[in-house]
Amino acid sequence: MRVKNYAQLKDSDEKYVNVEPLTQMRAMKLLYYMQAASLVLRNESLFDEPILAWKMGPIVKSVYNKYNGQWSIVEEGSITDADRADYNLVQKGPEIRDIVNTIYDYYGQRSASDLMEQTHHEKLWQDTPINQVIKNEVIKDYFKNIFLKAD
After folding, report:
1. Is the pTM of this model over 0.85?
2. Would the pLDDT of 7 be above 90?
3. What is d(CA 109, CA 115) in angstroms, rounded to the nearest whole number?
4. CA triplet 98, 2, 35: central angle to 5 degrees?
5. What burial letters (b/e) apply to 104-117, b meaning 16+ CB within 10 Å?
């Protein structure tokens, strides 16, 4: 997400004129939806770390810890060769690439507060106690009709 957002910010093409830097909160919500799509469409986790229900919505703790205190997680010079290599690796696998790109393209232009509000309206988040893990089985069950309808 960071590499794609960075490229969009640097692109002078008119279709990216309103692109905002990726924030930590927006990244958390996108990871949540990417994980949900992967669980439904691939029957596999996109990543191993659990998603927690925090006051501001779903989070991935290691990502939160890495970017804690930063508003934008895409700064000038913050994209490394390792980041680009990871991005290229994801882009080579069609199933994962399609999930990541589709979710990013669909939800990625929404503001962090819009995404937070959306997650707060989902029964899945409402039913999970604050600071507890949102179990993958529950995520998959909740989103199975949502993501399969889109096909």
Report:
1. yes
2. no
3. 10
4. 45
5. beebbeeebeebbe
